[in-house]
Design goal:
Chain lengths: ~550, ~350
C-alpha cells in the first residue's frame, strides 16, 4: 500500500514535471518584445463578421470594424442627442423633406490617397443598390427612399438618378417620398463613400476595404482569426490616440472571456450568467456606457427589443382579448431576474426609452398584471384556448419561453412549445405558419420611425404579424413629412398609442450591454447601438 | 500496384458523383430557404430577394441575368439537375461558387484560407495519436498487469469518456489562465487562435493545446487497440516458434509481432485522419481555430450550400485519397497482401 502510494506520488511529480516541461518549451516559443499590454495598441473581441465592406455591413461585429474604417456623412451624438457632422460639414433639407443637400468637408482623403468627393459617395451608394454585385447587398433598403432606387433594383438603370453631384463637395439627394429623418439614415456606417478601387478590384475590397475613416487596414481580414487596423495619419478629423487596434475574432464568447481573464483581450462581452460576478470583480460603469478603470462593466440599455409577434391571421390571435390577456399575464421582470441577472429592462413599449423617454410611449397592456389577465380570460371565456409558442432553439429562448408558458397557463391558457432550428423557424415565420413567435429588433437608426415603420406599416417587409391598420399607415406617412423634430416625435407617439391599443405584438424586454473592458482602458464609450467609439478611446 | 491505384482512382468518380448528388438532393429536402436566411430576422424586400435568387441561379434567368417569368408572371425555379450540371461544370473550371453568407466571397478562397490550418492541426494531432497511442499500447501489452498497464488502462478510460470540448476548456484554464497567474506570467500557453500579428508566441506553440485535445480520444482508442492486438499476436504460434528459434525478445517484438499487430491500428489511425481532415467542430470552436470544420458546421446551420458543397467536395477527395494510402500501406506491413496481382485471399 505504502509502495503504491509512493508510486502515485512519483507519477504525480512526473506529471507535474511534464506539464512544466511543456510550458517551458512554450516559453522558448515566446517571442521577445511583443506584449499584449503595450500602451499604444488595443485588443478587441469580435465574432466573425458578415462583412466589413460597407456595401453589405449589417450586424454589430462587422459594423464595429467598418465604422472606424469609414466615415459616413454624419453621426448621431448620444450625449447631445442630435446629429453631428462627419464627412459632411453641413446640410439642409427642403421644406417637405424630399430633398437634402450635403456639403462635404474639403481635403479629406481615402487611405490610398484618393480624394473624398461627392462622387465617391454616389459610387458607394450605387454599389449598395447594384444587383450585379457578386452577392447583391441585403441592406439596400437604407436607400429605398432615394429616387432611382427601384430602377436600379429592377436592372433598368445603372445609376442612382436621385443622387447628383453639382460640384466636388456638394451631394444632392432627392427622395421619392418625404422623409424628414433622412439624415439619421445617412449616419449609418454602410452609407459610406468608396474610392474607385472598390469598383476596380471588388474582390480584395471585400477583405481589405479602403475607407476615409480614422483607421486603415493592415493586411487583409483573416477570416476566423483577426482584423488588424492602424491609425490613418492623413485623417481629416481629430486623430485617435490609440495607434493600433487588433480585432481578435472568436467563435465562442466563452473563449473570448477566458482570453480576457488571462489578460489577452481588452474588451469583450460577458457570457450569460456571469455578469454580476464580473461586476463585483471589475466594477460597474458609472453611466452604463463608459468603461473606466475600476468601473469596467457596462450594462446600459440598447436600442433593441425582444418581443413576441402574433400572427393576426390566426383565429385565436385575431381576438384582441386573447392578446391583451397574454400581454398582461407575462411576468417580464421574472424573465429578466431569472435569466439575465436583472440587467435587461422590461419592455413597457415597443420603442425603447433610450430612443424616446416619454410617458405617451407606454403601452397600456405591456405590463405584468396577473389578476387583470385572469379577469379578461374569465369574462371572455378564454380559459382552455390553445396557444403554440414557436421559437428557434438555442440562445436562451427555451428558458424564456418556458417562463412565458408558465405565465400563460397560470391565467388559464393551454400552451404548447414548438422549438425549431433557426432555418426552419425563419421559414415558418415568413410563411405565416406560426401562432406566436419570438423576434428581436435592433434599430438601424436611433429614431422612433425605425421601430414603428418597419414592423407595423402594412406593407413593410418586417411586419411578420401581418398587421394592417390604414389609420397607422396614414399617420406614419404624415409623420415622415414633419421636419420639426419635436412635432414629428409627438406624431410618432400618437401612432405608437394606436398600435398599443391593437397589440399586434407583445413587447417583452429591452436588451442591455453585457461588456467589460480591461483596466488598461482609461476610457471607452460603447454607445447604445453597440458601436465602440474607438477613435476617442484612451488607454492608461 | 500501378494498375490497382488506377482502378481505385477511377472508382473515385462514381463515389464522388454519388455523394454530391445525395447532398444536392438534401439541399432540396432540408427545410430553410437560404436566401431568406441571408438577412436573418430582418426580412428582405421582394425585389432584393429576386435579385439574389437570380444571382445564385435558383431561378431561371435570361442571358442578361434577368429572371424569366412564366405566363402567370411567376418566376421559374431552376430544376435540380440543371443546378447540378452548373455545379459540376463550375467544378471542372475550378469554380466552387460564391458563399451566401460570406458576402461576395468565393468558396474556393474561403476554403483556401481555412484548409491549411485544418491540415496542419490534423498532422500534429495524428503524430501525437500515433506516437503516444502506439507507444502506450505497446508498454501496456508488454508489461501486462504492471503499474504501467493499469495506468494506461485508467487514463485511456478517462480520455474516452471525456468530451473533447471539456478537455479543451480544462487545458485552457490550467495552461492559459491558472499557470499564467500562478507564475506571474512567466510560463503559460496561448488559449486560443492560430497565429496573428503581434502574437506572443511562435506559430507552433499555438498547436500544442488544440492538437492534444483533438488527439486525446483517438489516442486512447489507439492505445487500446494496440494493446489488444499485440497481446493477441504475442500468443500466436509463429511468435512461439520465433522465440524457440532463439531470437531475442526485442527481435521478436520488432520484426514479427509489431508489424502484424499494427494493421488494425493503421486502419484506425487512417480513418481517424480522414475524419480530422474534415475538420473538428468542437476543438475548433473551443480553441477558436480557423479550420474548415467549424466553417462547414456554420454553413450547414445557415444553409450556406455553396460552402457545404465545396467543403464536402474537398473532404470526399481527401478521405478517398487517405483510404487509398492506408490500403497501400498494408502491403508494406504484411507482405502477404498483394494488390493488382490477381487472386489473393
Amino acid at each position: 500500500m505504502a509502495d503504491k502510494l509512493m508510486m502515485g506520488r512519483r507519477t504525480f511529480v512526473k506529471g507535474g514535471l511534464a506539464a512544466s516541461a511543456l510550458t517551458a518549451l512554450a516559453a522558448c516559443g515566446k517571442k521577445s518584445g511583443s506584449s499584449s499590454s503595450s500602451n499604444s495598441s488595443m485588443k478587441y473581441y469580435i465574432n466573425d463578421p458578415v462583412a466589413i465592406d460597407p456595401y453589405n455591413t449589417q450586424e454589430s461585429e462587422g459594423t464595429q470594424v467598418e465604422h472606424i474604417l469609414f466615415d459616413s456623412l454624419c453621426d448621431y451624438d448620444w450625449d447631445k442627442e442630435e446629429i453631428v457632422p462627419k464627412a459632411a460639414e453641413s446640410w439642409e433639407a427642403n421644406s417637405d423633406g424630399t430633398e437634402f443637400t450635403f456639403h462635404l468637408v474639403k481635403g479629406a482623403k481615402f487611405h490610398n490617397g484618393d480624394k473624398v468627393d461627392a462622387k465617391s459617395f454616389k459610387r458607394g451608394w450605387e454599389r449598395i443598390c447594384n444587383p450585379k454585385m457578386a452577392t447583391p447587398s441585403e441592406i439596400n433598403y437604407h436607400l429605398a427612399p432615394v429616387v432611382g432606387y427601384d430602377e436600379m433594383q429592377k436592372g433598368t438603370a445603372t445609376e442612382l438618378s436621385g443622387v447628383t453631384c453639382p460640384d466636388d463637395y456638394t451631394l444632392v439627394v432627392k427622395l421619392s417620398a418625404p422623409m424628414a429623418d433622412f439624415p439619421y439614415i445617412c449616419c449609418h456606417p454602410a452609407l459610406a463613400p468608396v474610392p474607385q478601387a472598390a469598383l476596380d478590384d471588388p474582390k480584395s475590397f471585400l477583405t481589405k476595404p479602403i475607407g476615409n475613416g480614422p483607421y486603415m487596414m493592415v493586411g487583409k481580414w483573416e477570416s476566423g482569426q483577426y482584423i488588424n487596423v492602424k491609425r490613418f495619419d492623413d485623417y481629416y478629423g481629430k486623430k485617435p490616440s490609440i495607434k493600433k487596434i487588433y480585432f481578435s475574432i472568436q467563435k465562442d464568447p466563452k473563449t473570448a472571456f477566458s482570453e480576457f481573464e488571462a489578460g489577452n483581450i481588452d474588451f469583450t462581452s460577458i457570457p450569460t450568467g456571469r455578469i454580476k460576478e464580473t461586476q463585483k470583480k471589475y466594477g460597474k460603469s458609472k453611466d452604463g456606457y463608459t468603461c473606466t478603470p475600476k468601473h469596467q462593466v457596462i450594462t446600459g440599455a440598447e436600442t433593441s427589443i425582444y418581443y413576441l409577434t402574433l400572427n393576426l391571421q390566426d383565429e385565436t390571435m385575431k381576438d384582441l382579448n386573447v392578446r391583451k390577456a397574454m400581454s398582461l399575464a407575462i411576468d417580464r421582470q421574472k424573465i429578466i431576474d431569472k435569466l439575465f441577472e436583472g440587467i435587461r429592462k422590461p419592455a413597457t413599449s415597443f420603442v425603447p426609452s433610450i430612443i424616446d423617454d416619454d410617458k405617451k410611449d407606454v403601452w397600456e397592456f405591456s405590463k405584468y398584471d396577473k389578476d387583470a389577465a385572469k379577469k379578461i380570460v374569465d369574462e371572455n371565456n378564454l380559459a382552455g384556448k390553445e396557444i403554440t409558442l414557436s421559437y428557434n432553439s438555442g440562445g436562451d429562448h427555451e428558458d424564456i419561453m418556458s417562463i412565458i408558458q408558465d405565465n400563460l397557463e397560470a391565467v388559464g391558457f393551454k400552451v404548447k412549445q414548438s422549438s425549431m432550428e433557426w432555418a426552419s423557424y425563419l421559414t415558418a415565420l415568413s410563411g405565416g405558419n406560426y401562432q406566436v413567435g419570438r423576434l428581436g429588433w435592433i434599430a438601424d437608426y436611433p429614431t422612433m420611425d425605425n421601430f414603428i415603420y418597419p414592423n407595423f406599416y402594412s406593407t413593410a417587409d418586417n411586419n411578420y404579424a401581418k398587421y394592417n391598420n390604414p389609420e397607422v399607415d396614414k399617420a406614419i406617412d404624415a409623420a415622415r413629412q414633419i421636419t420639426d423634430d419635436d412635432e414629428r416625435r409627438e406624431k410618432y407617439r400618437e401612432v405608437n398609442q394606436v398600435i398599443a391599443a391593437d397589440l399586434p405584438v407583445i413587447p417583452i424586454m429591452f436588451y442591455a450591454h453585457n461588456h467589460v473592458a480591461s483596466d488598461k482602458v482609461k476610457s471607452l464609450y460603447y454607445d447604445p447601438q453597440g458601436k465602440a467609439d474607438l477613435a476617442n478611446t484612451k488607454l492608461a | 500496384m500501378g494498375k490497382y491505384i488506377l482502378k481505385r482512382v477511377l472508382q473515385f468518380i462514381p463515389v464522388f458523383l454519388g455523394v454530391t448528388l445525395i447532398l444536392f438532393a438534401l439541399e432540396n429536402i432540408v427545410p430553410g430557404d437560404p436566401i431568406k436566411l441571408m438577412a436573418g430576422e430582418k426580412k428582405l424586400d421582394p425585389q432584393t430577394e429576386l435579385n439574389l435568387r437570380a444571382t445564385y441561379h435558383l431561378i431561371e434567368t435570361d442571358s442578361n441575368g434577368k429572371p424569366v417569368r412564366d405566363s402567370n408572371g411567376k418566376t421559374i425555379p431552376t430544376p435540380m439537375w440543371k443546378r447540378y450540371v452548373l455545379y459540376v461544370n463550375g467544378l471542372l473550371h475550378g469554380d466552387l461558387g460564391t458563399s451566401y453568407q460570406r458576402k461576395g466571397q468565393s468558396v474556393a478562397s474561403i476554403l483556401a484560407d481555412k484548409y491549411p490550418y485544418t491540415i496542419r492541426l490534423s498532422i500534429v494531432a495524428i503524430i501525437i495519436e500515433a506516437v503516444v497511442g502506439i507507444g502506450a499500447g505497446m508498454v501496456s501489452a508488454l508489461k501486462r498487469y504492471s503499474f504501467w498497464d493499469i495506468l494506461v488502462t485508467l487514463v485511456t478510460s478517462i480520455m474516452v469518456a471525456m468530451p473533447a470540448y471539456w478537455l479543451g476548456m480544462l487545458l485552457q484554464l490550467f495552461f492559459g489562465v491558472f499557470l499564467k497567474n500562478a507564475t506571474g506570467g512567466a510560463f503559460y500557453l496561448p488559449i486560443s487562435g492560430a497565429v496573428g500579428p503581434g502574437a506572443e508566441f511562435d506559430d507552433w506553440v499555438y498547436y500544442i493545446l488544440p492538437a492534444i485535445t483533438l488527439a486525446a480520444v483517438s489516442t486512447a482508442y489507439t492505445a487500446r487497440i494496440m494493446r489488444s492486438q499485440l497481446l493477441e499476436v504475442m500468443n500466436q504460434d509463429y511468435i512461439r516458434t520465433a522465440r524457440a528459434k532463439g531470437l531475442s525478445r526485442r527481435d521478436v517484438i520488432w520484426h514479427h509481432a509489431l508489424k502484424n499487430a499494427l494493421i488494425p491500428v493503421v486502419t484506425y489511425i487512417g480513418i481517424d485522419f480522414g475524419g480530422m481532415m474534415a475538420g473538428a467542430i468542437l476543438t475548433e470552436t473551443v480553441f477558436n481555430w480557423p479550420g474548415v470544420g467549424y466553417e462547414t458546421y456554420r454553413a450547414i446551420t445557415q444553409r450556406d450550400w455553396p460552402i457545404v458543397m465545396g467543403s464536402v467536395t474537398v473532404i470526399v477527395v481527401v478521405v478517398m485519397v487517405i483510404n487509398l494510402i492506408v490500403d497501400i500501406s498494408y502491403a508494406f506491413l504484411d507482405p502477404r497482401i498483394r494488390y493488382g496481382a490477381g487472386k489473393n485471399d
